[in-house]
Amino acid sequence: MRAITLFAATLAMSISAAAQAGGSHGGGHGAATGQPGKADAVSRTINVVMHDNYYEPESVSVSPGETVKFVVENRGRLVHEFNLGTPAMHEAHQKEMQMMVAHGVIQGGSINHERMTMDMGNGHSMKHDDPNSVLLEPGESAEVIWTFPDDVSLEFACNVPGHYQAGMYGEVTSE
Ligand SMILES: [Cu+2]
């Protein structure tokens, strides 16, 4: 009986610890990264070209609070991603991308959109529609509009397995 009570107490503690970690992560995350921007707030357009496996330009500098429209074009022969986030966010996203490859959603130079929207059986799918990123096949282009915070410390990165490790990321810094 005593052991069961102790177990329940430990479980309750670990749940609240997880909830707290989630809460502080959410708050810090918004402050550090910024938010999706509105088209009428865009002050500048930055063209980004994706190659196998690097970006052009290699880094980007923005003003505090600036809203930027990134026009991203994939001129490589592989699927590439443009994703704005912290290194920790990219690391977490790389695990999701590994699943996408394992499930055949990303196959070298193509994206299987049918598999991407398929229900994985737990209500989740492999949809890739976060406002801070685009995932593009060769020849495709897309826009990301983003409002940066005052103090920027971000990376744009490609989290297709192996690409970040090959150097496919760049720094976003404050001007
Ligand atoms: Cu890539």
Automatic annotation (TrEMBL):
Annotated signal peptide: 1-21
Pfam family, one: Copper-bind
InterPro entries per UniProt: BlueCu_1, Cu-binding_ET, Cupredoxin
Keyword Metal-binding: yes
UniProt entry tagged with the keyword Metal-binding: yes
Keywords: Copper, Metal-binding, Signal
Protein name: Plastocyanin/azurin family copper-binding protein
Lineage: Bacteria, Pseudomonadati, Pseudomonadota, Gammaproteobacteria, Pseudomonadales
